[in-house]
Amino acid sequence: MTGDELRALAESQGGVVLAAQAQALESGWTRARLRRVLTKEGWTRVRPGAWLLPGRPVGEREALWAHQLAHPAWVAGHWSAARLHGIVPRAPRTEFIGEGAAPKDVVLRRLPLPAADVTVTAGGLRTTTVARTLADLLRAGPRDEVLVAVDAALGWRHRCEVEERAGPGGPVPSGRRGPPLTTVDAVGRALTTAPELRGASRAAWWLALADPKAGSPAETIARLRMHDAGLYPETQVMLVVPTTGRRVYPDFLFREAGLVVETEGYAWHGSRAQHQRDVERFNDLAACPEVGSILRFTARDVFDRPDVMIRDIRAALSRGRGRG
What is the average pLDDT across 76-104? Predict the structure, then answer.
């Protein structure tokens, strides 16, 4: 076997090739003989019957390719689709929409899926559209992790440069910001595709909690914790520094009490320039006439000690209203 034709085929489908495809190229070869040859040449078995080009690590995309090649009618959905669209840094599990029997490591959902709700990624994988992906996540839950993803897709923070936890899985690697991937209206329309599906009415309620202005996962979770506690601040409202005319956008503003609440990522002070920017931002906020006091919470406070955060906010609100 020269391997050139087989390598070219693998390159065209995410570096993965099926044993059945390889056997078709080498007529008469048994699966056992093919396995010996591929192993000798350094190919990696992704799953039974699927092999990855030598020297390439097996990742989420490669695993998705292996399953989709074996089941061409399957469409990546839910968290796998969110990962392919760059909304989340990793998928907690491999998920497809389709029919048939699925391996133990795959969640296969049998849902109605119109052709308009299917797209193809730049790499060639079939996946649900961004709007349909978010609609499916909203139907499935859990709320907090889903709204982190929804806020990211609706705003500018997908692939964003933070290291905060977006639900289970640990730190989020740094990346790039970009324009919104979809709109609230588009997600709302996707929710009406199959209104009879379980969780549809709850999904619409959760979508109403989304805020495209949220700048980080910690900010989304902080807003949800405040909402659950009956606290409803303005988010990312524009304030103007009287002395300089500079505009500043606090994460949260309780206007009546003059209280600003800020959330900070783990790597916010990662450089001198970032530290300088933080100091200037704090001084700008303090100089705004609408601001009487500022509370700052780290991502760890938000994720691990939300009760303490809410307690401190309530205390500050009480003091602020008392002065009024």
Answer: 94
Using alpha carbons, select from 10, 75, 81 the residue that is nearest to residue 46: 10
What's the 3-state SS for 207-245?
HCCCCCCCCCHHHHHHHHHHHHCCCCCEECCCEECCCCC
Query: Are the beta carbons of 242 and 277 closer than 8 angstroms?
Result: no
CA distance 111 to 97: 6
67 or 324: which leads in pLDDT:
67
Q: Where are the domains of the chain?
A: 4-56, 71-207, 217-323
For residue 209, which phi and psi values (nearest 5 degrees)? -85, -10
Q: What is the pLDDT of residue 21?
A: 83
On average, the pLDDT of the chain sits at 87
CATH superfamily of 217-323: VSR Endonuclease (3.40.960.10)
Model pTM score: 0.85
Q: Is the domain 4-56 a CATH 1.10.287 member?
A: no
263 C-beta neighbours (distance < 10 Å), count: 26
- Beta carbons within 8 Å of 10's beta carbon, 6+ residues apart: 16, 17, 51, 52, 53
- Average pLDDT, stretch 41-70? 92
The pLDDT assigned to 166 comes to 42
Q: Residue 64 and residue 179: Cα distance in Å, rounded?
A: 26
